[in-house]
Amino acid sequence: MNTETRRDNVDVDVMRQTIAALLPPSEDLPTGLEVPALTETLRGHMTALIPEVEELAGRLHRDDIPRYCALACVGEARGKLRARPAMGLGGDVAYARKLARSLIALCDHFESLTGQVMCVACDRAIRRPDDAVPLDQVSNSAGAITARVHPDCVDAPRPRR
Q1: Are 151 and 141 in contact (CB under 8 A)?
Q2: What is the rounded radius of gyration, in angstroms, for the C-alpha atoms of the chain?
Q3: Among 84, 9, 102, which Cα is nearest to 48's?
Q4: Would you say the pTM of this structure is higher than 0.90?
């Protein structure tokens, strides 16, 4: 399987939906039966995304800061995959949330390295440039923020992580 085919199979939207089950804006926790399934799903997403981010970062100049940051993220993610949940109450949820935060970082690096534009309000891909509004046109950032949002997300708060 070539690199482009693998990359086409990376669905960051699905990965972010899995993350949202563990890091929602509310403090509702998944049930005990959901946590192992979510953990395995997160591990699978990370296992698929790590080589993609590593390969994309490897194309950048050796002294490039985005390369360094992406490769550091890959190292952190591998460490999280090697780790195991702490024993005791809540250890499995805490571990799953650590994986989710690591997957967020991997998704962010993947999107940055591939030039994919994401809506900062809903964390979904902006498929066509005309499907988005520059955030500085709908916020009081005075041009300091150059992100984009879906028109339906203009008044929505950014998800908490």
Answers
A1: no
A2: 17
A3: 9
A4: no
58: its two tokens: 């490897």
Report the greatest alpha carbon distance in the chain. Answer: 50
CB within 8 A of 114, min separation 6: which ones? 7, 56
pLDDT tens track for 45-84 = 999 999 999 999 999 999 999 999 999 999 999 999 999 9
